[in-house]
Design a protein that fits this description.
This protein is of the alpha/beta class. It has 2 domains: 182 residues, Rossmann fold, CATH 3.40.50.150; 97 residues, no CATH class. The strands form 2 sheets. Strands 3-2-1-4-5-7-6 form a 7-stranded mixed β-sheet, with helices on one face. α3 links the parallel β1 and β2. The radius of gyration is 22 Å and the shape is elongated.
C-alpha cells in the first residue's frame, strides 16, 4: 500500500480516502510535526527513520533545513521515493537500510523524526536507539498512535518514561477529528536532548580561532596555507614533511564536513571556551554556517 502520495503521483483508493485529512500524509506533517520544528532551521539537519517514500523528508527540506535525510527499509518503497526525488530535482538524501543497521553510522543531526514506526523495533533495539540519540541529536519528535495491538502498548503508554533525562517543550494531543475524512487517534511529543545543543560559532572562544579561520578559508579557496604551516613548524618543531601531513589531515576535516556534515560534537566549558573541536568550528564557519552542534562539560 502507498501510505504516502508524492506530488504528481497517481492516487490509489486508499490515498483518495485520506486526501485532505489532518492525520495522514501532508496533513499529518502540518498538524503533528511542523508545529514542533525549530522556527529557523538554518544550518540544521533533519533525519526521519522509517521515511516511507520520503514525503516528510521532502517537506522538511521545503521547510528550510539545510539537509534532510530519510532512512527506509522497504526497498520497493525506497526506489519509488528515490526515483521521484531525482525526477523532480530534489537534493535530500534517502538511504535504503533498517533503523538497526543505520544506527552505528548515524550522523549528528538536529531533529530526528519517528512517525508511527518505532513500535516495530524490538525492546533491545529501541533501548539502543534511545542511547544513541541522546548524544547524536538535539531534538526528537515521536508521533504515536493510541494502542490497538498488544505489541504497541510498551511504546504508546507513558512513552515519556524512556526519556527521563530529556525535557518535553511541547506536545500535540486531542486534535479535533470532527469533519475529517479519515480521522485516527494520534499525538506527537517533542523531546529535547540533555546533552546536545546547537550554538553560535562566534559565541565560542579559542586562542587559535583567527588563525584557524584563515587556514580553512585557504582550504576552501584552494590556496596555500603558508601561515599555518609556519605555525606548526615554529610552535611544535615538526619537520616539513610532518607539517604537510598534518595540513592534509586538517584539510580532510573540511572536505568531510562539506560532504557528510558534522560527525563529532565540539566540546565547550561553561564559559563557551573550546575544550575540543577548534578545527571543526572553523571548518564549519568556512562552509558558511553560523552555528555548530556542541556538548558542555
Amino acid at each position: 500500500m502507498n501510505y504516502q502520495t508524492l506530488p504528481g503521483e497517481p492516487e490509489v483508493a486508499f490515498n483518495k480516502k485520506i486526501k485532505n485529512s489532518k492525520f495522514w500524509d501532508g496533513g499529518k506533517f502540518d498538524t503533528f510535526i511542523k508545529p514542533l520544528l525549530p522556527k529557523d532551521p538554518t544550518d540544521m539537519i533533519f533525519l526521519e527513520f522509517g521515511c516511507n517514500a520520503g514525503l516528510f523528508v521532502k517537506m522538511a527540506k521545503d521547510y528550510g533545513f539545510s539537509k534532510a535525510i530519510g532512512v527506509e527499509k522497504d526497498t520497493q518503497v525506497y526506489e519509488r521515493g528515490k526515483n521521484w526525488r531525482d525526477k523532480n530535482g530534489y537534493d535530500y538524501e534517502l538511504i535504503n537500510a533498517s533503523i538497526e543497521d543505520f544506527l552505528d553510522n548515524m550522523p549528528l543531526v538536529d531533529v530526528v523524526l519517528l512517525s508511527n514506526v518505532h513500535y516495530y523495533l524490538s525492546i533491545p533495539d529501541w533501548m539502543k536507539l534511545i542511547d544513541i540519540l541522546r548524544t547524536r541529536c538535539t531534538h526528537l519528535i515521536i508521533v504515536n498512535k493510541y494502542p490497538r495491538a498488544r505489541h504497541h502498548l510498551v511504546f504508546t503508554r507513558n512513552i515519556e518514561r524512556y526519556f527521563t533525562e530529556w525535557s518535553i517543550p511541547l506536545k500535540i494531543d486531542n486534535v479535533n477529528e470532527e469533519g475529517d475524512p479519515s480521522p485516527r487517534k494520534l499525538r506527537s511529543i517533542l523531546f529535547k536532548s540533555p546533552i546536545v545543543k546547537r550554538v553560535k560559532i562566534d559565541d565560542t572562544h579559542s586562542n587559535r580561532r583567527a588563525m584557524l579561520n584563515r587556514f580553512y578559508s585557504n582550504v576552501k579557496n584552494k590556496e596555500a596555507p603558508d601561515e599555518y604551516r609556519r605555525y606548526l613548524r615554529s610552535r611544535y618543531k615538526v619537520s616539513s614533511r610532518r607539517a604537510s601531513k598534518i595540513l592534509r589531515e586538517k584539510a580532510h576535516i573540511y572536505n568531510s564536513m562539506k560532504l557528510h556534515g558534522q560527525s563529532e560534537l565540539i566540546v565547550l566549558d561553561k564559559d563557551n571556551i573550546m575544550v575540543d573541536g577548534s578545527h571543526r568550528a572553523s571548518a564549519q564557519k568556512a562552509l558558511g554556517c553560523k552555528t555548530i552542534l556542541a556538548r558542555y562539560v
